[in-house]
Write a sequence for this structure.
C-alpha cells in the first residue's frame, strides 16, 4: 500500500505540540505506572538486606565483611531510589531545551503514525524541514526522525489522563498526545483505538 493510500485511510490526522509542563506530567505518570513500583520493591529489598546485615554485625562485631555488605546494600537501595528521579530530571531538561516541536499523528484502522513535522530553531521559531538549507549536508543526513508506526495489536496500550493520553507500545515506549486542541469527536477517535 502506498503512503498516499494509507493517508486516505486515516480516521484522524492532527498536528500538535506537547507543552513542556504536559511532558513533565506525562513522564511522571509513566514512571508512576511502570518504573516506580519496581524501583520501590528493589529499594525495600536492599534495605531489608541491609537491616539483616546490621543484625549480623551486632551478633558478630568482628566480621568486617558484614560492614561492607551493609554499605553495598544501602548504596544499591539509594541507586534504585535515585535513578528514576535523575532520569526524569535529565529527560525533562533535554525536552525543555528542545522546545516544542510539532508532531503529526495519523490514526488508521490497524496502526497509529507519529512523526516530527518541525523543530523550533534557536530563536524558538518553528523550523520546517522544507525551510532548512540542506545543500551542505551529506545525502544520508535526515534532519527529521523517521515516522513511528504503532501497531494496534496486543502490545498497544492507551492510558487516559485529564490533560493527555499516553500511547503505549509495550511497557517501555510511550508517546504523549495532549488533549488540548482536540475536539470531543477527535478525542473519541483516539479512545476508540483501545478495544
Amino acid at each position: 500500500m502506498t503512503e498516499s493510500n494509507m493517508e486516505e485511510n486515516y480516521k484522524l490526522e492532527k498536528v500538535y505540540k506537547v507543552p513542556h509542563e504536559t511532558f513533565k506530567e506525562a513522564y511522571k505518570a509513566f514512571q508512576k505506572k511502570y518504573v516506580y513500583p519496581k524501583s520501590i520493591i528493589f529499594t525495600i529489598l536492599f534495605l531489608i538486606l541491609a537491616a539483616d546485615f546490621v543484625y549480623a554485625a551486632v551478633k558478630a562485631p568482628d566480621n568486617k565483611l558484614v560492614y561492607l555488605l551493609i554499605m553495598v546494600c544501602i548504596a544499591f537501595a539509594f541507586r534504585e531510589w535515585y535513578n528514576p528521579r535523575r532520569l526524569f530530571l535529565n529527560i525533562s531538561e533535554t525536552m525543555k531545551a528542545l522546545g516544542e516541536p510539532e508532531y503529526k499523528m495519523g490514526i488508521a484502522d490497524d496502526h497509529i503514525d507519529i512523526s516530527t513535522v518541525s523543530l523550533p530553531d534557536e530563536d524558538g521559531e518553528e523550523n520546517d524541514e522544507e525551510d532548512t538549507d540542506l545543500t551542505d549536508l551529506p545525502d544520508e543526513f535526515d534532519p527529521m526522525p523517521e515516522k513511528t508506526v504503532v501497531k494496534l495489536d496486543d502490545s498497544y496500550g492507551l492510558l487516559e489522563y485529564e490533560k493527555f493520553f499516553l500511547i503505549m507500545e509495550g511497557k517501555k515506549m510511550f508517546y504523549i498526545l495532549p488533549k488540548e486542541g482536540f475536539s470531543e469527536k477527535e478525542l473519541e477517535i483516539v479512545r476508540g483505538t483501545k478495544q
